[in-house]
Design goal:
The chain is mainly alpha-helical. The chain has 13 helices and two strands. The protein has a single domain, classed as Orthogonal Bundle (MetI-like fold).
């Protein structure tokens, strides 16, 4: 192995920094600066009338917003949405990956179909499911099922209906990740388990799942972040006027309402965005702290 001289090492570091500089500048302008500006905006209360200056209120604004019933309802809806989307999305993705992990003719077509939802936009997915859930020309009336009120107008079923759209869109990514993990497993270990007399379910549960645990762990972390950041389906199918009434006002949509609603409140939006950032960070750290203990890495 050739060792670089100090001069060559400095040049390589300088070249690497030069390549990274455009990305660093973009991140600084569009990510780091707005993120830090949030902490300043959260300390100012928006004036009740346009054109008036914001009033400095310190942390009292954060206390009042985070203890309000609207925030608590939004937090509950967010957690329920995440609980519905992540486990089902991963389980269905794993089931499809197991079914598609075959060496038979034409299986590539099914793999393309199963993964196609990853390239489908939120708007397209929402329109497709909105048509299927339409109370007049949708799938349910065709099957003879006529829920009253309709699914997307029900305080009970609106959130699961929107979660179903998010699951469908997350399914493509979940399938790709799980299939890649399955194809990376060593065949000799699986074959040895079969030779020892283990059945298909035993091989899957005792051998495949433990070896696939790093992939599953990655899917849980990515899926959780994805679920916390979903809001497009709600905006298209439910709308701002009915989001809170139908219990689908998840945190990200609550932030969107605070910025783009009829009465914009940047101070409230800043507090909510910081709260969402902290929640996602805490969830991710907890997953890294506790779930990773059950992950079996090769060579460990």
């Amino acid at each position: 192995m050739t060792l670089l001289t100090p001069v060559a090492r400095r040049r390589s570091w300088g070249l690497a920094a030069l390549f990274l500089l455009p990305a660093i500048i973009l991140f600084a302008i569009f990510t780091f600066y707005p993120f830090l500006e949030n902490f300043k905006t959260a300390l100012y209360q928006t004036a009740p009338y346009p054109g008036l200056p914001s009033k400095y209120v310190g942390l009292s604004q954060a206390t009042s917003i985070l203890s309000s019933s609207a925030f608590l309802q939004s937090l509950t809806s967010t957690f329920l949405f995440v609980v519905m989307v992540v486990p089902l999305g991963l389980l269905l993705g794993l089931a499809l990956a197991v079914a598609a992990n075959k060496t038979i003719k034409g299986i590539g077509i099914f793999r393309i179909i199963f993964s196609s939802t990853v390239v489908t936009s939120v708007a397209v997915g929402a329109i497709i499911f909105g048509t299927l859930m339409n109370p007049i020309v949708g799938l349910l009336p065709w099957l003879g099922i006529n829920p009253n009120p309709p699914l997307l107008q029900s305080p009970t079923w609106a959130l699961p209906a929107v979660a179903a759209i998010a699951i469908w869109q997350f399914l493509g990514l979940s399938f790709i990740v799980m299939l890649a993990g399955l194809q990376a497993l060593p065949d000799d270990v699986l074959e040895a388990a079969r030779v020892d007399g283990a059945g298909a379910w035993t091989v899957f549960w005792r051998v495949t799942v433990p070896m696939l645990s790093p992939t599953i762990f990655f899917g849980v972390v990515v899926g959780t972040i994805y679920a916390f950041q979903s809001f497009g389906q709600i905006d298209i199918l439910i709308g701002q006027a009915n989001a809170q009434q139908f219990h689908v006002n998840v945190l990200l949509y609550y932030i969107y309402q605070s910025v783009g609603g009829t009465n914009p409140d940047p101070g409230q939006a800043a507090v909510l965005s910081i709260a969402l950032f902290v929640i996602i960070m805490v969830f991710t750290l907890l997953q890294l702290r506790f779930l990773e203990r059950r992950v079996h890495y090769a060579g460990r």
